[in-house]
Amino acid sequence: MLRDITLGQYYQTDSVIHRLDPRVKLGGTILYIISLFFFENIFGYLVAAAFLAVVIALSRIPFKYIVKGMKAILFLLLITVIFNLFLTPGTPLVEFFGGRIRITYEGLKYAVFMAIRLSFLIVGSSIMTLTTTPNNLTDGMERMMRPLKLIRVPVHEITMMMSIALRFIPILLEETDKIMKAQMARGADFENGNLIRRAKAMVPLLVPLFISAIRRANDLAMAMEARCYRGGEGRTKMKPLIYQSRDRIAYLSLAIYLVCGIVVGRL
Amino acid sequence: MGIIQAMHVVYEYVRRDEEGNVEGSIRAVDDVNLDIAQGDFIAILGHNGSGKSTLAKHMNAILCPTEGTVWVDGKDTRQQEAVWDIRHSAGMVFQNPDNQIIGQVVEEDVGFGPENMGVPTREIWERVEESLKAVGMYQYRKHSPNKLSGGQKQRVSIAGVLAMHPKCIVLDEPTAMLDPNGRKEVIRAVRALNDVEGITIILITHYMEEIIHADKVFVMDQGKIAMQGTPREIFSQVERLKGLRLDVPQVTLLAWELKKQGIDLPDGILTAQELVEALHL
What we know:
The complex is a heterodimer.
Chain A: H1 16-19, H2 22-36, H3 42-59, H4 63-70, H5 74-87, E1 92-96, E2 101-104, H6 105-131, H7 134-144, H8 155-185, H9 195-226, H10 245-265
Antiparallel strand pairs in A: 1-2
Helix pairs in contact in A: 2-6, 2-10, 3-6, 3-10, 4-6, 5-6, 7-8, 8-9
Chain B: E1 4-16, E2 22-36, E3 41-45, H1 52-58, E4 67-72, E5 75-76, H2 83-89, E6 90-93, H3 106-117, H4 121-134, H5 150-162, E7 168-172, H6 180-197, E8 200-205, E9 216-221, E10 224-229, H7 231-235, H8 238-243, H9 250-260, H10 272-278
Parallel strand pairs in B: 3-8, 3-9, 6-7, 7-8
Antiparallel strand pairs in B: 1-2, 1-4, 4-5, 9-10
Helix pairs in contact in B: 3-4, 3-5, 4-5, 5-6
């Protein structure tokens, strides 16, 4: 049952977006998200929607697949819209219960904008994770965060930890499954009872899992040292990141989008 | 002097109680002397807790001896500045294949060692390709290690060490967690490395079948080297091996029992073929 969980889901196909340098995708996603919060009218969002549509078309990921990922945040979206709708002060449009609950013109506007922002934000960032392998992503992050080394942020170590964590997720999931079955074989019950009882049933699952994870970490550290690992200093890359012409074109399109968006969106 | 030399090596594990006070110590390795020549295939044998894994970790400078000295390729393992050279010339493969693969793709894992050594990108690719070909895993280079069998994973680990171009590879019970097929795969790969590339192999194991091709065998018991010699010399002492809680291969045992019943057979028969010939069948 735990096998169904997919993390950092990568959608395997071959497209221009897939082949882009991870730094372009990371930087692009961040800029795109920031841009969404700068627009003040509906035209800015039309530009953002058009840009997103072009990227989705280029990425060759079925639109249905992306929408499926949206289900998870539907609840969050709903709450945001309701709060904005009812709690923003301003010119009232409709009043209920003698004015105690009202929908204002500003509230309606913010609710719509917030819904658009959030859904574009989710779609935009999911395109990044769908088109980039976790490895590529951590590589890109390492390169982009390199300036932070000057203020003593252990950039290499952080990204190394991330990629090791990603490597061990399937292994630990498999192990959890095994422990769960072993406990169930001896009469443990993980499915019935109220929330507290089910949480309590997790304890005998977590203890062996933690012990095993620590043991694995110890083994892995030894294996890494045996293979001459000594941090990021003096390390070369098997797959170095080098910008291609398509990456330059991508940066240029991003800049054009930003200029158009800001001109139209803040008229 | 050989590639690995150990003189009067002692290693003590310090045991502590809950407050961290020293309760006592266990001598895991006790006065061991070894001299391993370049290009040899060495097997170290012993039951659980005989100190064989502890000894193995000395050959890669993961552990330093409490007393005595270990030289790897002429360098003392206690010298801090020599540690990376030592780990470069003596690679190590561990027991659990899952816990020593770092990459999420086979080729990336094999490239990990050369990356750490600062090898230029183009050469890394060459080394990865030749190492994967040497262990017969080249067609799996784009696969995720999670999708491979135990024997295949262990071969990837060996390729990862091989890509560092070591003079010697220490394998610490590489087959203990594998099924019989995986065990055969790994041993075949290891023997090929020794025959074709001339890499010194130190195989630590408790499977008797794996050592019959070794040039020299050391049997460990309670931290000491209890027996040493060629596989034939070792296996001709069936009584002694039984005393050390070790099994001999079935064929050797059968020949030994037959001999006890008065059939004229030479000592230390290792394979079924030899037994057939000795019995004039």
